[in-house]
Write a structure and sequence with these properties.
The complex is a heterotrimer of chains A (about 250), B (about 230) and C (about 190). Chain A has two domains: about 1-35, no CATH class; about 55-230, no CATH class. In chain A, strand 1 and strand 2 form a beta hairpin. Chain A has about 250 residues and is of the alpha+beta class. Chain A is about 40% helix and about 25% strand. Chain B contains nine helices and two strands, in the order H-H-H-H-H-H-H-H-E-E-H. Chain B has about 230 residues and is an all-alpha fold. In chain B, strand 1 and strand 2 form a beta hairpin. A two-stranded antiparallel sheet of chain B has the order 1-2. Chain C is mostly helical and about 190 residues long. Chain C is about 75% helix and about 0% strand. In chain C, helix 3 runs parallel beside helix 7, helix 7 runs antiparallel to helix 8 and helix 8 (about 130-160) packs across helix 9. Chain C starts with 5 loop residues before the first helix and ends in a 7-residue tail after the last helix. Classes of the chains: A alpha+beta (about 250), B mainly alpha (about 230), C mainly alpha (about 190). The interface between B and C is large, with 42 and 41 residues.
């Protein structure tokens, strides 16, 4: 940039401005073009990744429906746009996936959770079984943990054993979990709500415990309250009637 | 690098296209092994061969397209704002690659992480724009950048395959050894990156030294022959 | 220790996940400017300073971009922010601390292409740090960079007196040393758990 000492008359100012404006225009066009061209592909990729994880976690599922948790209500995902128009998107909106078997019975629910791990955010998908009020499995969607150490949270068989039945049963008043989900040292697991850490990867393991605890504390009570709505599969009604149905259910 | 820059600015003529325009980036002026440029992605994403390949291809694309644009606009960009212009051009193409990779494969995108966006500050690209693309016409620039990109990809693959084979016992995800193979995990961890790159450089140093010795030996022999002939 | 407490962020970015030795950011100056201890310190200080300025600015820029929903311009804005932050630091130093400016002179423009700076800006965005966390993170990253540079410079100054095989002269040996340092830093893995 020492070149600024060069002649500074009007014509060179004009040349610089012209060049910068042209380049900014070209780059703006290219960036916006690539953004809008790639957007549908990126979204379908994300959706596919979630679908794949869902059906790997719940093997006997044959159908999937998407809902959203907004505040303490559960709505079908198709009402997302309407919701955004009504409220100025103040309440936190969280996607919820419901999985049904061939007999159209609700067998599992799935949610995403995230927390910061050893290097970057860890994002997982976990399935919640309302029958036993427990977590039935997790799948890591995104992480940047150390290869060979922290990334075992997605592959280590002993660690994944924790999530075959991880207790998330609620208190009597259905407000919070009876027991906090915590990670304990390797080999010290005594209760169903404890997570046996991977030795050498305690930070990654405790990150998983933290995100599960946070997410379950917040959403399990809501899910249990609206369970009959999720089981009843009223999803095929017209959009107008659905808001009503939700309201009635939440009054119960 | 510096020598080259000087010699380029001294000669105001365009370079003749020859096989060397392409090939020197691959070997004689290999950006990684010879010029030691762009080391950050070389070390960071080479823990598997497939990541290395993807990074190489992405960098090559950015190198090729940004340098092509720089070359086309070379008479249009005033000297005073050239660095700013180059950086904006490079950042544009990197953003495009970033979205393209996300659209192609999310797994790959997650594996490469922030290093796709960090292609912006890869010194090879800015260095090539400044030293070559801003002075040469399009065909030469295309060939040269392609060669440099190939050289960069080649270097990444050299590291990536060695690290993957030693660190996990596989190559491009295919298992090479039986189950009894105990992977040398350190090789896919950060220290392994330094060690493997250091070893490659040692190898090239050794080869270069042997070549030099051979040449001087040959010269000695010819000299002796000449002297004995004369005698 | 919580993964988003300030102490953890600082220690993690400075030592456990050292920017140079574990994340491979800023390797070029690490190999280039680590021959002498005093230049290493100067470079380190300059980097810390630019990091803090650009991290704070990047935080503001990101907030604006998010408000207008134009995140796709993030990379271009960040690199422009960094280039101007370097320019700004250069001008301020020239005016108020000319002696420091002379000492750092040649290293300042180099910082623009230091990927550690852009790395800080990108990571603080992807980890969704708030303003205070971002500042602590960039301070930690800068400290880590300076630490690595200083250790390397110390080693290389000692090496000048040692007899080494001709083959390993130059970058090859520096990389091997960096590998050993990185191995040593891996010992901090799990700290703060």
């Amino acid at each position: 940039m020492a070149a600024f000492n060069h002649l500074k008359n009007n014509s060179s100012d004009w040349l610089m401005l012209r060049a910068l404006v042209l380049i900014a225009t070209i780059s703006g066009l290219l960036v916006v073009m690539s953004f809008s061209l790639s957007k549908p592909y990126i979204e379908s990729n994300k959706q596919q990744a979630i679908d794949k994880a869902l059906f790997e976690l719940v093997v006997n599922a044959s159908d999937k429906k998407e809902f959203i948790i907004a505040g303490d209500k559960i709505l079908p995902a198709s009402e997302l746009m309407q919701l955004k128009q009504e409220q100025s998107s103040e309440a936190e909106i969280k996607p919820l996936y419901a999985l049904y078997n061939k007999q159209e019975k609700l067998i599992s629910l799935a949610l995403q959770a995230e927390a910061s791990g050893y290097q970057d955010k860890i994002q997982i998908l976990y399935t919640f079984d309302p029958k036993c009020q427990c977590i039935r499995g997790i799948k890591v969607l995104k992480m940047a943990e150390t290869p060979g150490i922290g990334d075992k949270i997605s592959s280590d068989k002993d660690f994944l054993q924790n999530f075959i039945e991880l207790d998330t049963s609620l208190n009597e008043d259905w407000g919070t979990l009876k027991n906090k989900i915590v990670s304990v040292k390797h080999g010290k697991k005594r209760h169903l709500w404890e997570i046996d850490s991977i030795s050498g990867a305690t930070i990654s393991s405790s990150a998983v415990a933290r995100m599960l605890n946070q997410s379950a504390q917040q959403f399990v009570p809501i899910i249990m309250k609206h369970l009959s709505f999720l089981q009843s599969k009223v999803l095929h009604r017209k959009p107008g009637q659905q808001g009503k149905a939700v309201l009635e259910l939440s009054h119960e | 690098m510096n020598n080259k820059q000087e010699s380029m600015s001294n000669t105001d003529q365009y370079e003749q296209i020859s096989s060397d325009t392409f090939l020197r980036g691959l070997w004689k002026e290999n950006p990684v092994f010879v010029m030691l440029l762009g080391m950050c992605p070389v070390l960071a994403v080479t823990n598997s061969a497939i990541n290395a390949l993807a990074m190489g291809v992405a960098s090559t694309f950015v190198l090729l397209s940004s340098n092509a644009l720089v070359s086309l606009l070379r008479d249009f960009i005033p000297k005073q704002v050239r660095i700013a212009s180059y950086i904006i051009i490079i950042a544009t193409f990197v953003t495009m690659v970033d979205y393209a990779i996300q659209a192609i494969s999310l797994d790959l995108y997650n594996a490469l992480g922030a290093f796709i966006q960090l292609i912006v500050v890869n010194c090879i690209i800015l260095g090539r724009a400044e030293a070559y693309a801003s002075k040469q016409p399009l065909p030469q620039v295309l060939l040269n950048s392609l060669g440099m990109g190939a050289g960069f990809t080649f270097a990444l693959l050299c590291l990536g395959s060695v690290r993957e084979i030693l660190g996990t016992g596989s190559l491009f995800g295919l298992m090479l050894f039986s189950e009894n193979f105990q992977p040398w995990v350190i090789m896919i961890l950060p220290p392994g990156g330094f060690f493997v790159l250091g070893s490659w450089l040692l190898l090239f140093n050794y080869l270069a030294m042997r070549k030099k010795q051979n040449i001087s030996l040959n010269q000695d022999v010819t000299l002796r022959q000449e002297s004995s002939d004369a005698g | 220790m919580q993964a988003d407490s300030l102490t953890y962020i600082f220690l993690n970015s400075a030592i456990v996940n050292n920017f140079v030795l574990a994340m491979f950011l800023g390797i070029c100056p690490f190999l280039g400017v680590s021959a002498k201890k005093d230049t290493a310190i100067s470079m380190g200080l300059a980097v810390i300073f630019v990091m803090l300025v650009s991290s704070a600015t990047a935080y503001g820029v990101n907030a604006i971009l998010m408000a207008f929903n134009i995140e796709y311009l993030r990379l271009i804005c960040y690199i422009a922010v960094i280039a101007s932050a370097v320019q700004l630091v250069e001008m301020t130093m020239k005016k108020y601390t000319p002696s420091l400016f002379r000492a750092l002179g040649i290293y300042l423009p180099l910082i623009t292409t230091n990927c550690a700076i852009l790395g800080v800006a990108l990571f603080q965005t992807s980890r969704e740090y708030n303003f205070i966390q971002s500042m602590v993170f960039s301070l930690g990253a800068g400290t880590g960079f300076t630490l690595a540079l200083l250790l390397m410079a110390g080693l290389r100054q000692q090496l000048e007196l040692a007899k080494i095989p001709n083959v390993s002269q130059g970058a090859a040996l520096t990389l091997m040393l960096a590998g050993l340092l990185s191995l040593a830093f891996m010992g901090f893995t799990g700290m703060g758990a």
